[in-house]
Design brief:
Blueprint lengths: L5 H21 L4 H5 L16 H4 L4
Length: about 60
């Protein structure tokens, strides 16, 4: 039996996949805020309007 047999790579791949599933299942409660953050409505901006003196024409 050689050191780098195909079984070794298959076992590493299976171990990585199982580990990723375990870590994902353990942290699934924390995903909700990062995947879809709560919607926030934009605040309407009230731009300053020109005074009536600006529109009047001096004669």
């Amino acid at each position: 039996m050689s050191l780098f047999a195909p079984d070794l790579y298959r076992n590493f791949a299976l171990g990585f996949a199982v580990g990723a599933v375990i870590v994902g299942a353990a942290t699934i409660g924390q995903w909700s805020d990062q995947i879809s953050p709560p919607a926030r409505a934009a605040v309407s901006l009230d731009a300053p309007q020109p005074s009536d003196d600006f529109w009047s024409i001096s004669e």
